[in-house]
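Example 9 (inverse folding). The structure is encoded as follows.
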C-alpha cells in the first residue's frame, strides 16, 4: 500500500529558543560584565554558542575566567500582569 501525504511523518527540528546570558569575563586584571541573548535548542547548545562568542570577543586572550551569573530561557508568552493595564503586550 502506498503512503499518502497524511501518512508521512515529517520530522521537525527542535525549535531554537532564546536565552538570556549574563556573565563576568575576566582577562588579566580587567573584568567586564556582559549581557547577551543567544539562540539554542537547550542549555548545552547555548553554552557552545557562548564559547563561540567568547572566542570572537577575546581573540588574543590567553586565558579567560568566566562566571555565569544568569542563564535562562526567555518566555515567549508575555506576562500581562506585568503591564498592570497600562500597556497592551
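The amino acid assigned to each position is listed next.
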Amino acid at each position: 500500500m502506498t503512503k499518502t501525504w497524511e501518512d508521512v511523518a515529517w520530522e521537525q527540528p527542535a525549535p531554537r529558543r532564546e536565552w538570556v546570558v549574563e556573565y563576568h569575563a575576566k582577562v588579566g586584571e580587567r573584568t567586564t560584565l556582559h549581557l547577551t541573548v543567544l539562540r539554542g535548542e537547550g542549555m548545552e547548545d547555548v553554552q557552545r554558542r557562548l564559547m563561540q562568542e567568547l572566542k570572537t570577543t577575546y581573540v588574543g586572550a590567553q586565558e579567560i575566567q568566566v562566571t555565569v551569573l544568569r542563564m535562562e530561557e526567555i518566555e515567549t508568552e508575555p506576562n500581562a500582569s506585568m503591564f498592570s493595564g497600562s500597556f497592551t503586550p
